[in-house]
Amino acid sequence: MDGNFKIQAAKGDVLEVSYIGYASQAITLTSAQPLKVTLGEDTQVLDEVVVTALGIKRATKALSYNVQEVKGDELTTVKSANFMNSLAGKVAGVNINASSSGVGGATRVVMRGTKSISSDNNALYVIDGVPIFNTNKGDTNGQYSAQPRGEGISDINPEDIESMSVLSGPAAAALYGSNAASGVILITTKKGKEGKARIIISNNSTFSNPFIMPEFQNSYINRAGSFASWGDKASSLFGTYEPKDFFNTGTNIQNNVSLSVGNEKNQTYLSVGTTNATGIIQNSKYDRYNFTFRNTTKFLKDKMTLDVGFSYIIQEDLNLMAQGEYFNPLPAVYLFPRGENFEAVRMYKTYDTTRKIDVQNWGWGDPGYSMKNNPYWVANEMNHGMKKQRYMANASLKYEILDWLDVTGRVRIDNATNDYSDKRNASTDLYFTNSSIYGFYKYYKADDRQAYADVMANINKRFGDLSLSANIGGSFTQTYYDERGFQGGLKDMSNVFSLYNMTTTLDKDTYPIESGYKQRTNSIFASAEIGWKSMLYMTLTGRNDWDSALINTEQSSFFYPSIGLSGVISEMVKLPKAITYLKVRGSFASVGAPIPKNLSSNKTYEWDPATSQWKLQTYRPLPKLYPERTNSWEAGLNAKFFNNSLSLEVTWYKANTRKQTFQVPLSGTAVYATMYAQSGNIENKGMEFSLGYNKSWGDFSWNSNLTFSFNKNKIVELLDDAVDDEGNHYSLSEIDKGGIGSAKVILRKGGSMGDMYVTNRLKRDNEGNVFIDKASQNVKKEDIKNSDEFIHIGSVLPKSNLGFRNDFSYKGISLGFMLAARFGGIVISPTQAVMDQFGVSKVTALARDNEGVPVNNGKVDPQTYYTEVGGISGLMSNYVYSATNVRLQELSVGYSLPAKWFNNKCNLSLSITGHNLWMIYNKAPFDPEATASTGTYYQGVDYFMQPSLRSWGFNVKIQF
Question: Is pLDDT of 616 > 80?
Fold first, then answer.
């Protein structure tokens, strides 16, 4: 508060100074000298305001649900190419897994458990109140999955973010209707500020290496001509081979310049940001360039406010890689025979004077597991990547009709052009070039566009002891995606990647690429918050969606309601002095998730690449379709103690998601092979805790925040004796979601969405002893029983998660660190199984040192044993590990140089940062938090997955 005041008073008088929102002070005048009075904030008077759905600002004490806010600085202290990775561990009830595809990869963000069988369960992203079109390409599946790519949200420059609100519960996100079931990440971007011009220049540079890797052996070598390392003990003169040496040091260099300038009537914000990152696998990179403009203007006697913004993004990624056998150099790197010269492999190509091109140098043929190519050839000569140009333009116009009534209209356009290419050079193994000796080429151009508009009337009015805050409006959303291209082998000239040089004879690997959709949603919505004496609040919301996905069905629209109550106990009764603030709350919401696109279009034919022919629709048309419906109950309390220095938030929730959409096989005599059923009931229930402490002692301050959450996921029902319109009965006891080798994800009634099963187990006698073949004196693959009944080995879902963050500051020096922990659940490692089969794991060396593997009361030969039980078709139950882990996830040390050193012309701050610096506890042979897929399934499975990263670096920020 600034200002000059002239006060008539005499010596000895008592002067009381007060201002709304600040603690009053009584001062006794001792002289006639001028007084300097500093008022501290009275947090009991100020109503904290938080941004909620549709960009509506609400007082936190009126909220009937949990909203967690994260400031922009928390996302930029320890940076990632995808800023969502910086949110991990900082919000209760939100599981965030960084993709193992490396720099620029998509991130998995799941709130309050997996709910949907058919969708990816990732959160909805909203920028300044408007949902954005986030194309997440991070899904992978199976042993031979294509490598994943990035997602739309990673295009955002974190330096442009003012704050984030995490709406983890359906009640908080209810105003988004059919998109609200998975929760919302609501991003508020920066705008210009009134006052003198401010320029901020920042640089963040980080360097990365593998964090957790498998344990290898170099004690035993291979036999001549064999790829497996089951030979003699290595000579002491033999050099050791370290797979870790294959990896480079990854880099991530981010620079940003921003300008904020404005006066009372007009404020402008400009920023330019660059991100240039390279992965730990050579020839993988991610580059992004962000240009942002925003201007806010008031006119018509300050009754009209115009806010316009524009962002332009240029982005390119190359060779993102997650896991699997295809387009992955790591199987050959990890399994390379000890005893052979890996330096010869580094010379991955030689010049062919006859063909006048570089050809591959790989003398091992096909040792299995798709290791048909030199790993350096895979990294350098089998290139896939995306080039993107994206622009986002938005405008909002607000008119204040009365001091308690205003009308706001908003419009946003978000368009992106994507050029994807996959180029495999000549002499790549013919399996990957569609048998062409000239190479392989895949190209498609994809356009994704979103148009959004809404208009909303906002009321804020008091009637004596009653207050009313209401919003009513309507919105229009249209998303459009179109993808067209071609793929196939080259026909005449080597490494000439042109559509004119492609084979045109259609087969399973040569065909045109054409897909797309257009979806439109019209909505009306309303919310009303009624307060009594600023201590008791009731909130009602409703939204009705007309979705084009419902075309050709009997349903034209759906309604989504919510209701909530909150009471500020500290305003109602006198509490002990230690309790500064206490609020209880409860809510119910019914929200949805869209049905699969094009499901109701009744397409008669579809193109089948496997046969290069059109085929008839194989599923039975559905007369009725419903979006998934999630009904959620939530209750909690918010409390502050000891003059607001200690805060506590507790939330209990229970959510049931019904009307799941999945396919049901029909009998062989039916006209259609399958039908879509809408049934099922997935239940999630759990609790979230957040405990914070914020205190200052002179120049020293300490800010601490502990988050803890647990969730129990249960499949209450799949399909139990459903009856169709013709009187036919259908049931579904389980859904096989696939897996890798003998390990599968299977959904069963009473189980969870993350249950893993195996089919193989060791044959045992009546006394429980493992059956030993008399001829080989070992176990035999034929005796590893392939059971028709799957064996449950655990769930990949965590039981609970914890984050503990502390920030200290003293006279410009700052120290911050965060511990993160996950408790419960399992992970499996087919990587370890294959390493055992090839004799390159540390376990196999120890077994040879100990002259055998303990089985029953004796020992068996290690090579025979691991060759039989190892590999992905072997005994996968041997490769199950606890997913519990504890780590030092973030560390930062900084210093803000005194402004007087620069004649008060600028502020300069320096900091050193680290991420994943120390794995305190972990029993798995890889990082249990890494994920190769951002989809619902294939979590907790490591199949030659790129290791997670340990990074360190520095930040420099200067402000003028």
Answer: no
Strand pairing category for 885-897 and 907-922:
antiparallel
Per DSSP, the chain holds a count of helices (H) and strands (E) of 9, 48
| Residue 332: closest CA among 241, 250, 249, 423 | 241
Q: Could you give the 3-state DSSP secondary structure of residue 381?
A: helix
- Rounded Cα distance between 189 and 828, Å, is 40
DSSP 8-class letter at 666: P
Residue 142 vs residue 370, higher pLDDT: 370
Q: What is the helix, strand, coil percentage profile of the chain, to 5?
A: 10, 50, 35
* Alpha-carbon torsion angle 644, 646, 647, 652, nearest 10: -150
Residue 343 host element (H or E): helix 342-346
Q: Which residues contact 346 (CB under 8 A, 6 or more apart)?
A: 376
| Residue 716, phi-psi category: left (phi > 0), alpha (psi -120 to 50), beta (remainder) | alpha
How would residue 43 be classed by pLDDT, with cut points 50, 70 and 90? Answer: very low
Task: Give the three-class secondary structure for 386.
Answer: strand
**Continuous segment of H or E residues that includes residue 569:** helix 569-572
The pTM of the whole model exceeds 0.85: yes
Identify whether the C-beta of residue 652 lies closer than 8 Å to the C-beta of residue 684: no
Both tokens of 411, joined, read 């419009």
With residue 842 as reference, give the H or E element that holds it. helix 842-849
Question: Residues 548, 519: contact at Cβ < 8 Å?
Answer: yes
Sheet strands (E) in 403-465: 405-425, 439-463
Single-letter amino acid, residue 809: S
Question: Taking the mean position of all CA atoms in its chain, how far away is CA 428?
Answer: 34
Q: Distance between CA 644 and CA 809 in Å, rounded?
A: 19
Closest to 40 measured CA to CA, from 18, 69, 71: 18
Average pLDDT of the residues in 547-576: 88
How far is residue 755's CA from residue 227's CA, in Å, rounded to a whole number? 35
Residue 205 backbone dihedrals phi, psi, to 5 degrees: -125, 125
| Range from 88-92, 632-636, 719-723, 869-873 carrying the lowest mean pLDDT | 719-723
- Name the 3-class secondary structure at 218: coil
- Whether residue 415 contacts residue 461, with contact meaning beta carbons closer than 8 Å, is answered with no
SS3 of 506, please? coil
Question: What is d(CA 545, CA 806) in angstroms, rounded to the nearest whole number?
Answer: 43
pLDDT for the residue 1: 43
**Nearest to 137, CA basis, from 181, 113, 107, 98:** 107
Look at the block and give the residue holding tokens 């052996």. Answer: 217
How distant is the alpha carbon of residue 102 from its chain centre? 13
> Has residue 31 got a pLDDT over 60?
no
Q: CA angle 844-850-855, nearest 5°?
A: 80
- CA 262 vs. chain centroid, Å, equals 36
616-652 in b/e burial notation, b at 16+ Cβ within 10 A? eeeebebeebbbbbbebbbbbbbbbbeeeebbebbbe
Q: What are phi and psi of 207, to 5 degrees?
A: -130, 135
Tokens of 10: 């005499």
How far, in whole angstroms, is CA 150 from its chain's centroid?
10
Please, are residues 477 and 521 in contact by the beta-carbon 8 Å criterion?
yes
Please state, in angstroms and rounded to a whole number, the distance separating the CA atoms of residues 569 and 525. 31
Classify 740 as helix, strand or coil: strand
Q: What is the DSSP letter of 549?
A: G
Helix (H, G, I), strand (E, B) or coil at 183: coil
The residues pairing with 783 across neighbouring beta strands, listed in sequence order, are none
Buried b / exposed e along 518-534 (16+ C-beta atoms within 10 A)? ebebebbbbbebbbeee
Please report where in the chains the tokens 């002893």 appear, as a residue: 769
How long a stretch of residues is the chain?
A: 960
Burial 467-483 (b: 16+ CB within 10 A, else e): bebbbebebebbbbbeb
- According to DSSP, the β-strands at 195-210 and 184-189 are unpaired
The tokens describing 696, both together, are: 């200052």
